[in-house]
Write a structure and sequence with these properties.
144 residues; single chain; 5 helices; binds 1,3,4-trihydroxy-5-OXO-cyclohexanecarboxylic acid; alpha/beta
Length: 144
Amino acid sequence: MKIIVINGPNLNMTGIREQSVYGTCTLADINKKIADKCEKDGIECDFFQSNCEGALIDRIHSCHKNYDGAILNAGAYTHYSYAIHDAIHSVDTPFIEVHMSNVHAREEFRHKSVISPVCKGVIAGFGHNSYLLAVEALKGIIEK
Ligand code: DQA
């Protein structure tokens, strides 16, 4: 089983920006926790982060036939990028949408996700554990 964790804009600033919302772990710390879990679970895991919509779309396209599953925190693109919606829709790889914060308890513009309809499910509100829960969710989907 081979998966990828894709992070979008500003997630490279995790641990620095809005610590009361996103915590003090850096993205490297979070990726290490995911990598450790994947190693224990016998899962191969790659990581990608970009602040650019086009680069995220290229990486999503490259998932086709190459990954059994993907975990995506698209950051603010979640709320308005129809291009990312279409990219996920273009590939056969199952995607889990992830957010560290509970987007539904925040500003109204965060309540809407344009990518949820093309993802298998959504995990939000559990800090960096949202990613670890998403690994579990993918295991459930892929092992079936
Ligand atoms: C986020 C929530 C988004 O609304 C925000 O733009 C982010 C991070 C989260 O992980 O909680 O950048 O996706």
